[in-house]
Design brief:
The chain has 66 residues and is mainly beta. The protein is built from one helix and four strands. It has one domain. Strands 1-2-4-3 form a four-stranded antiparallel beta sheet, covered by helices on one side. The relative contact order is 0.30.
């Protein structure tokens, strides 16, 4: 990850954990086919992408906890 990367982990309720990773590498937008996103899709209850101020972009995922 580049030096401008940011990671966020939060508990949205008693059973849901949200993870968000942002970076400022503008050459790819999250959601382009990559092996890591296949893992996210397999493990996450929900996930998605969102753009930020150019060139920042984020991938988020919500997991169900025990």
């Amino acid at each position: 990850m580049d030096s401008a990367a940011r990671q966020l982990l939060s508990v949205t309720n008693a059973h849901r954990i949200r993870i968000e990773v942002s970076d400022s590498r503008g050459h790819r937008f999250p959601g382009e086919p990559r092996h890591g996103l296949l893992i996210v899709e397999a493990l996450a209850e929900e996930w998605g992408t969102c753009p930020g101020p150019a060139p920042r972009k984020s991938v988020w995922a919500e997991l169900i906890s025990g």
